[in-house]
Amino acid sequence: MELIYLSMCLCVLVSMCESLAIEKPKGNLPAPNLWKFESIDDPVDNTTSQRLTWTGVDSGDAQDPVVGYKVKVWVTQKIKKIVYKNEGGKLVATEKEEYPRISSNVLPESTPTVLIVPGNKTTVVFGPVTVGVKYQFAVLAFTKTREGPLSSPTSIRLLPTEEEQKSGSV
Known about the structure:
- By secondary structure, the chain is mostly beta strands.
- The chain has a domain at 25-75 and 104-167: Immunoglobulins (Immunoglobulin-like), CATH 2.60.40.10.
- It contains two helices and nine strands, in the order H-E-E-E-E-E-E-E-E-E-H.
- The chain has helices spanning 2-19, 162-167; strands spanning 34-42, 47-54, 68-76, 79-87, 90-98, 113-118, 123-129, 134-142, 154-157.
- The strands form three sheets. A four-stranded antiparallel sheet has the order 6-3-8-9, with no helix packed on it. Strands 1-2-7 form a three-stranded antiparallel sheet, with no helix packed on it.
- A hairpin with a 2-residue loop joins strand 4 (79-87) and strand 5 (90-98).
- InterPro entries: FN3_sf, Ig-like_fold.
């Protein structure tokens, strides 16, 4: 009789434990990964756009799913530097313009263009882009209640074709 009672108690205890919902802690959203850039030429307008593709993100919470992505685009400005060269024993100052180095933990100071993309999409087209201008891209996922971190920034700069260089159009 004790054995039957004990097995009934264990069955009740097991079934009670199985019916308890264990809630997953709500953590931070992971950052998407920008992994593909494609140039799209429009011969009618003679313009070029960029198609960006990134990895999708799962919020880990069915009650608060990813509803969209924010793609941030910065136009990176060149910075001026003074470079000193030794010419015949004299230091000669020369002004030089160059793009700043990209850092994964430092964002540009300028205000980005923000493109909102639905949560079921992982691609967007940005453009037109200008030849010779450097653009910096980063993407983040968001839900109704929270926003994830930005992806590592990626930059592109379209170089002029030989024809554009010869004609001096850029």
